[in-house]
Amino acid sequence: MLEQYVKKILTSRVYDVAVETPLQAANQLTARLGNHILLKREDLQPVYSFKIRGAYNKLMHLSDAERACGVVTASAGNHAQGLALAAKVLGVKATIVMPKTTPEIKVEGVRSRGGIVVLHGDTFPEALAYSLQLVEKEGYVYVHPYDDPHTIAGQGTVAMEILRQHPAPLDAIFVPVGGGGLIAGIAAYVKYLRPEIKIIGVEPDDSNCLQAAMAAGERVVLPAVGIFADGVAVAQIGQHTFDICKDYVDEVITVSTDEICAAIKDIFDDTRSITEPAGALGVAGIKKYVEQRGVRGQTLVAIDSGANVNFDRLRHVAERAELGEGREAIIAVTIPEVPGSFKAFCQAVGKRQITEFNYRYHTGSEAHIFVGVQTHPENDPRSALLASLTEQGFPVIDLTENELAKLHIRHMVGGHAAKVSDELLFRFEFPERPGALFNFLHKLGGRWNISMFHYRNHGAADGRVMAGLQVPADERHLVPAALAEIGYPYWDESDNPAYQLFLGR
Q1: What pLDDT sits at residue 139?
Q2: What is the C-alpha to C-alpha distance for residues 276 and 260, in angstroms, rounded to an integer?
Q3: Domain range for residue 107?
């Protein structure tokens, strides 16, 4: 099988539109990690992503009759732009079905490259279903974003370039994984020619479809996928891709949202370029690999796979990057409600920089403060801060990994509501589109009083909402069905310590 794919890769037609991207040394990362770190700069492609390789190669292998029919795909991201450009170069009509929630930068990116955009549905599955209807109705040829041998071969040209650009020993290549097209192509080429090189997939910890499939020995469908790294938000690995990955991918590493944000900052520090969350997965994986294995002196490559990021999203990335780097801790501390308590706490913190400080009066005896404190992963880790405060008699709760605290509570000037009874707290994700928030509030507010609400736009396709509902005890059994009717993913946060300390009754 590998030999067949290698032949397909070697004969792939990609360079009519794609460019050979540099394998660039990441000098700052190299110095920090004690390993030679190289970045494969696929963010420098004409469509700012590697996807152009697979899309163009697939079109080149269509017959004249198939091209005359026109092509269609469903995509909310980089594949859409790659296919649009590839089709424009070859004079093929390309229809791209995108969810109505797709960020405007990606819609315009497709239109500017000659693609016909059809906005349909609120989710990718709805867009996909409609694109398949167009195949039946209009006779279009469907171009899959990853699960196709020619697409895989086109993406595999990335590996061909890496081995040519770096003929010296290479220890591992870290590859972002969504549907698996890129890692399958890279694994096929590298394992055939240089089997000693490790191929390591990197996925977000909330959309790890390849890791789940490899653990199960077969493809599985994730019940839900995370939305932050939208370029790899795939619930099931492809069939063609898994056929390769199950035998030739050495391991899969998962990383958190905070670790991805830290990696985006790392790449910026070394290149002065800003990658999309999916594009930073390789670097995040290298950092975690080095930390866990303690390796030194190795040569490690990360695929910087794309740079299609919404500008509005950068504030969220910047906010979370310090947490992901271990340079900030978010903590809740209880102090006596007496004059001089704030001063005593600041003395206990010592010379560490306080990055955030939120307080609202609670009772006459004690105060709960929400604090951000600068730390250092090596010289002054978070554990040292927590231990120091505890030793000095300050009750402290670590909120650094608490999503409710990071997404909502740190942005609220809150306080306890003494007269609010029967309150339940929920966290929601809903599609960012006109009318979505009104629709959400309309459906939510009809039965029970909304006692608290927070929404903040993060420049993503999905919005994050926190809502408090006053639900009498004898009606609480009705809540799951009511929330299910709204149809948005939700989490019950009523027992979350961040809520109980700063906003609860």
Answers
A1: 94
A2: 9
A3: 51-142
CATH of residue 21's domain is 3.40.50.1100
Grade residue 240 by pLDDT with cuts at 50, 70 and 90. very high
| Token couple for 73 | 């795909």
Of 211, 215, 83, the residue nearest 154 (C-alpha)? 83
Closest by Cα among 388, 393, 297 to 351: 388
Residues 36, 85 within the same domain: no
pLDDT at 433 over 70: no
Structure tokens at 450: 């909304």
CA-based torsion, 180, 186, 190, 196: positive or negative: negative
113-117 mean pLDDT: 93
Find the CATH number of the domain harbouring 392.
3.30.70.260
pTM of the model: 0.78
| Number of other CB atoms surrounding residue 187 within 10 Å | 28
User: Among the three residues 119, 142, 165, which one is the final residue of a domain in this structure?
Assistant: 142
Q: What is the DSSP letter of 134?
A: H
List the catalytic residues.
Answer: 51, 305
Rounded Cα gap, residues 212 and 217, in angstroms: 9
**Same domain? 126 vs 213:** no
How crowded is residue 332: how many other Cβ atoms within 10 Å of its Cβ?
Answer: 22
